[in-house]
């Protein structure tokens, strides 16, 4: 790196960080992109990885490979843990707990959000979210292991627990997961077992609102509800989950009414998001205000007030109700890069204007919703539109062709090509033969776990 050139540090390799780094490629700055996984993950398709349609490699790509043509961009593995505003320095932690420092002239915080359990962090051990590749693999292990374990049990309440799946949150991720689990049970697994009937599996979808997909037009939301019910998904509105444990959940009505218990061994959480710890720390160090979820208030150009050298983009940007969607992150990354380039050219920065390119949600084979301005598509047309949009934004030509090929094979046949899950069993004490993660090991009795780490 050239010591005389401005240094740009980007925290996070999601849509915002990646698009910002690309736009700064071959510009007269030295860019460092720091990410805790060193890969870009196409989060909108995580649920297809979790339910066995796509592989990890089809929805993710090495950041180092993706940015290899930009010689002024360096990608580093690490997690940002501390910000020194006066020295303009970020401290990052390596996976072995050692640390290193990065100096910056410009800082772009694109760290994204994590799953929120609304203060009930102990739920996380039994109800994984859907934000990372680890989450997707954990859910895949739980889903497919549930059917396998049920196959070994006699008919009765214990088998029914394993064949009951609860999903919290009826936004796009929750709807997509619920639809895919039922489709998995009624198509891909329907004829593969001897003792159980996978199509008898119950899928329960809980939400505090009065309909699914509240960000969509009411007519589209109603259509989605009908498709889900036709699939066999049981919809429960106006409720919130008050307890999650090893063998079930408790649900309470938002108004008057008694709580109800549901026996289930698989709970999937998609009900809320909150800022990652570094974002909250950075807001405190910068003297920035935040909302309840930890989003950081920014000026019209996405910079932090009183700190024009620091940009906050994507889900973390708290301004004018910017949505937590991929398009906002992409546009924010491009805008931050354009602002830095304007600074270098001595030009005035422009205001950030988000352009709503629409929303899409997949429900089941042949059924998806697409909403873009006045255009509202459902059924097969919505499904084709959904597929086109997702293919267009996948990173890497190889991933695009591979994903299209997999989808075509899935349409033609009922099978899922990536159903492999790992239970351990090497004999090493740190790799026990279990569907649970290490955080569960001290909670075999069903008590709440002491840790709030995700499973």
UniProtKB/TrEMBL annotation:
Signal peptide: none
Keyword annotations: FAD, Flavoprotein, Oxidoreductase
Annotated GO biological process: aerobic electron transport chain
Residues of the FAD/NAD(P)-binding domain: 7-333
EC number(s) reported in the record: 1.6.99.3
Cofactor dependence: FAD
Top-rank EC class of the record's enzyme: oxidoreductase
The organism's place on the tree of life at top rank: Bacteria
Matching Gene3D superfamilies: 3.50.50.100
Gene Ontology terms for molecular function: NAD(P)H dehydrogenase (quinone) activity
Stretch list, region Disordered: 427-455
Listed name of the protein: NADH dehydrogenase
Organism: Mycolicibacterium iranicum (Mycobacterium iranicum)
